[in-house]
Amino acid sequence: MEYTIEDICKNTNSSLLTGDKNHIINSIDSIKSTSKSSIIFIRNKKFLLSLNSKSITCLTSPELSKELTTFKNIIVSNNLDYSFALLTKLFASSPDTLLDENIYPFKGNKFNVGYGTIISKSAKIGNNVTIGSNCVIEKNVVIGDNTTIDHHVVIYESSFIGRNARISSGVVIGSQGFGFARRLDTWEPIRHIGSIVIGDNVSIGSNSCLDRGTIENTTIGNNVIIDNLVHIAHNVSIGAGTAIAAKVGIAGSTSVGKNCLIGGMVGIFGHLEICDNVVISPKSNVYRNIKKTGHYSSLFPLLPHSIWRKISILLSKLDKINFFQKK
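^ that's the sequence the OP posted. Answer follows.
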């Protein structure tokens, strides 16, 4: 797909501040891009430090545009998130093309594939792969050798799964992330055009969902084990050897280090960094970076209801208590 900058402005509710309206754009890229035919999205001042000076086209706000003097083509919008959502719509694959015209409706006579499974012809399936019944493998998916995929698994376009993986029933890999831009009383979905890369020897439990990246990839390192009912959002990075128990939710763009142990029902906020060798107790809420190896916990253990009521009353009054009052 190719668009002139003039086309992009017309379709994204934005305008060209400076540059060549006839310049051709064929992709959206990360802020580290050096491609002359890509457009990058800059919504926050903190991203300026990561910019590559060779990028030439950007979509940004009128305020930030004043600091982007190295760009030849600067597109601005007063509703930046909404314009970005419309931009991703231009470059996203149509749902009608995700399987392409050439599909294999397998019935178990090739690649050890179960009845009712559909695999795009452009997918690359390794040796000794077993795929259960009623699965869908979309175009350009790569599945490594000796991987086992149970029944009712959906693997979306361009997802990559390494060798010796075990994908349990009901898993969804590479689905759209939870990203929307608001305009008045409506929500415009941000199409996630990144992918997901899963390393070797990874195990993913039943009914877990792993979203694709917005522009860059979601990544799962080698030897990661994931329990049932886990949600990993867009652009999350999980380091090698990490174990994640059931009902964990990790919000977008968070990085989890190597060899971490994350207990059941842990909630991890977005855009955080968790270092290597961290243990997080079950039901903890992680809302800030963890920069030092150790064991972390939050919330209270189970208490008799009468005691909990007294504690909750005290908690509601903590801001009124002067701990440093002189006696």
